[in-house]
Amino acid sequence: MKLQPHPDRLFPADPTTRDIARQLHDTIKDEPIISPHGHVPPEWLAEDIPFKDPTSLLITPDHYVNRMLHNHGIPLSSLGVGQTEFSEEDSRRAFWLLFKHWWLYRGTPVKYWMENELYDYFDIRVRPSEETADEIYDAIAEKLEKPEFRPRALYKRFPLAFLATTDDPVDDLRHHKKLAEDPDWDGEVRPTFRPDKYLEPAREDWPQLMQDLSDVSGIDTSTWAGFNEAMENRRAFFKENGAISTDHSHRDPGTARLSDADAERIYKEALAGKVSQEDADALRRSMMYEQVRMASEDGLVMTLHPAVYRNHHTPTFEKYGADVGTDIPLKTEFTENLQPALADFGTSENLHIIPFTMDETVYSRELAPLAGFYPSVFIGVPWWFIDAPEAMARFRGAITETAGFTRTSGFIDDTRAFLSIPARHDVARRVDSGYIAKLVAEHRLEMDEAVEAIHELTVNNPIRAFKLGDILNK
């Protein structure tokens, strides 16, 4: 059977609305991709490291792919996860395992992304299956030997206009510096300040993290005031090296500020390894309040990704480490959690906060009203478990009537799977085109308004929310 993605895929089934969606999509389908939050390692582009084989490119780093195979009894190790040695034979078998079980992905965005990648970038014209696995593997492996499949060439081919990575606060950012100083590089790859583990005082390694923070900043972190000064120091370092945002993912998005005395007391207990979980959570929320304060001063955009039960299956975490598909969503709440920080900084001209969630119940109840009032709040588009067509359409329906078309972040691919970036963004562009087309078909928008609206969602919103105007318009 032939692999041939339909040109009208994901558009509404109604012929009139589908035609409008097609016209809208045509106006933005070739716009360069803005990817302000993701996990592509910066060294891939700094060193222009060739991709080793089809499995390490398309399977091993993509937990969307791996978790579906794992739930049918296939060990993650068979897919290259956590393996320092993985032969060509191992790689080929992993590919065969994926396509032998390709039927598992029916109805999922993984199928859409992968088939688009195969068709658009590797000229694959046969459907994935157990019988075609070797043929597809060989075709991809041959392509990966060519210069046009190196990371820098793919960056331009996608095309990417902007790519942000995710980086530890004590990172020296040498790969970003190398890119910035390379006369042969004209792309935009920026670091993102991700301080999560430094804001979790109950961690066993937290005292050592405070020492690491002190060593790299040159600031004594034995006090609460010293901790905040060191954080300000590292944020400034990241900003000097091109960062435009910070990223935060905790159990809740709380921002309740402690008194300096209480914060100092709990901070000392945490340094001594004697803090209770309750006090540690209270200190973390006060730390988040301070991060909002810092953002209102230094202008770094804050993205919030709360309410994930990290490493839910402890044995898998112990064997393979984090970010391998064992994170599970939790319910969350934003209105009360963000109130303390928004009360003090929510109308600051310098502050942009972008809350993301996998809890769809908060869209119309909390996030749309927050973004409908606060000039600092932009709603993060569906992400992770809900970056799928139906969830994206529900999102637009839930938030647009209250917050309009200008208060969302632009699509966030949030991926380590580099080659899937264009396909993921195309899903969002097609779904948004379909949503706006429905408004035109119902005579709620004129066509010229619809064209402007789809351009807002695709181009203007990420530029506005992430303050990218000076970078992309230079």
Automatic annotation (TrEMBL):
Bilayer-spanning residue ranges: none
Gene Ontology MF term list: glucuronate isomerase activity
Family: Belongs to the metallo-dependent hydrolases superfamily. Uronate isomerase family.
PANTHER family per the UniProt record, alphabetical: URONATE ISOMERASE
Catalytic reactions of this protein: D-glucuronate = D-fructuronate
Leader sequence segment: none
Alphabetical keyword list: Isomerase
Enzyme Commission number, as recorded: 5.3.1.12
Organism classification: Bacteria, Bacillati, Actinomycetota, Actinomycetes, Actinomycetales
The name this protein goes by in its record: Uronate isomerase
Pathway the protein takes part in: Carbohydrate metabolism; pentose and glucuronate interconversion
Top EC class, one word: isomerase
InterPro entries membership: Metal_Hydrolase, Uronate_isomerase
Gene3D superfamilies to which the protein is assigned, alphabetical: Metal-dependent hydrolases (3.20.20.140), uronate isomerase, domain 2, chain A (1.10.2020.10)
